[in-house]
Amino acid sequence: MANTLYPESYYAASANAVPPRPALQDDVETDVCVIGAGYTGLSSALFLLENGFRVTVLEAAKVGFGASGRNGGQIVNSYSRDIDVIERSVGPKQAQLLGHMAFEGGRIIRERVAKYNIQCDLKDGGVFAAITAKQMGHLESQKRLWERFGHTQLELLDQRRIREVVACDQYVGGMLDMSGGHIHPLNLALGEAAAIESLGGTIYEQSPAVRIERGANPVVHTPQGKVRAKFIIVAGNAYLGNLVPELAAKSMPCGTQVITTEPLGDDLAKALLPQDYCVEDCNYLLDYYRLTGDKRLIFGGGVVYGARDPANIEAIIRPKMLKAFPQLKDVKIDYAWTGNFLLTLSRLPQVGRLGDNIYYSQGCSGHGVTYTHLAGKVLAEALRGQAERFDAFADLPHYPFPGGQLLRTPFAALGAWYYGLRDKFGI
């Protein structure tokens, strides 16, 4: 039996108390069966319930067990590939739709937190930090690009200004996005799950979907029960396994590593990040960090292709943290963990429909916190017959990894090695 308890992360240790949820043990009927209680599934379920659907959510482990409860906790706008890249591949009309949606996920998170009073340490403000002049140039063009799509809460930071927001001398400048920010990601997921139940939705934990009976009236089977539904939403992402084989070929689970320090105390925390913004650098293989509600530093980075759990996470990430903040050399690390996200070859999300009644969204490629909240809304719209925004995502071109599942890991690792060299030499 796979481990279905939360990994030993800072988030699990500081999670808000929630009631235990039962495993499915009989046959139930519903309008929509959602597979996966991460952000994509939770967001879909919540929008559907608000629109009068009956919803049942099946979760193989616990709410927020996967990437939703393990990520860096940063609200970062847009997609893993920016709107200009999308525009070149799909043309202006589709890019226009996707461009305007690129900033919606963060708004949805804030609406959810306010409407359902979710306690998740929400803070406004995210910084993109440039290490080279070339990266700074990219941020300048990114600001112009985002402003073209109506996104105006942006400020370029010169070398002096970035020192005011982060005590790290690696950076030549940066960009502040006040509609970015950070959250306790597991508590956000748990709060959304409670909101689902408050509207009459049902969530079954420890209830993996083991088989989908496709057809006019699809049925999802779990080890001890089944759900008959009019529609199914597949939202397993990097934890879906081979339940839907046609989705597995076009994506690859990847691991990212995160460490959390002991509490730093108010003075040191304020010295590192005076305005409490979160930060990510502009490298292809980027580092990201922020303060928690109790003044620890969460620092993440590194990618393990094929989603193996590395033996010593602290040994991988601590040197990156000390390069940014040598002043933390004597600080103890209290937690270290890994979590998987799903990478696609284009690094754009995959959204679509199988047959008439099975919908899916997957492959956020490391940009999941905001995108998944948008995806839930877009999937819910499609089930209500409003498919324009769904189609804009569904029409994005996607390709299987060269060599299939056997070669996808070495292929992606080779690409990462190449980009790592580019980061290192600033090219």
CATH architecture designation: 3-Layer(bba) Sandwich
Whole-Å distance between the termini? 46 Å
Poorly predicted regions are none
Q: Report the major sheet.
A: 9 strands, mixed
Name the helicity range.
25-40%
Q: How many strands in all?
A: 17
Rg calc? 21 Å
Q: How many structural domains are formed by the residues?
A: 1
Shape: globular
Average pLDDT figure: 90
Which CATH first-tier class would you pick? Answer: Alpha Beta
Total of DSSP H or I helical runs spanning 4+ residues: 14
Strand content: 15-25%
The CATH homologous superfamily is named: FAD/NAD(P)-binding domain
- What CATH calls the topology is FAD/NAD(P)-binding domain
Give an account of the 3D structure.
By secondary structure, the chain is α/β, with parallel strands linked by helices. The protein has one domain: FAD/NAD(P)-binding domain (3-Layer(bba) Sandwich). The strands form 2 sheets. Strands 3, 4, 5, 6, 11, 12, 13, 14 and 15 form a 9-stranded mixed sheet that branches. Helix 2 runs parallel beside helix 8. It is globular, with a radius of gyration of 21 Å. The mean pLDDT is 90.
Write the layout of secondary structure elements.
Elements: H1 10-13, E1 27-35, H2 39-50, E2 55-58, E3 74-75, H3 83-90, H4 92-101, H5 104-115, E4 123-130, H6 133-148, E5 154-157, H7 159-165, E6 173-182, H8 185-198, E7 202-204, E8 211-213, E9 219-222, E10 225-234, H9 245-248, E11 252-261, H10 266-272, E12 278-281, E13 288-291, E14 297-305, H11 313-324, E15 333-343, E16 350-354, E17 358-362, H12 368-383, H13 388-394, H14 404-425
InterPro entries: FAD-dep_OxRdtase, FAD/NAD-bd_sf
Domain FAD dependent oxidoreductase: 31-381
Pfam families: DAO
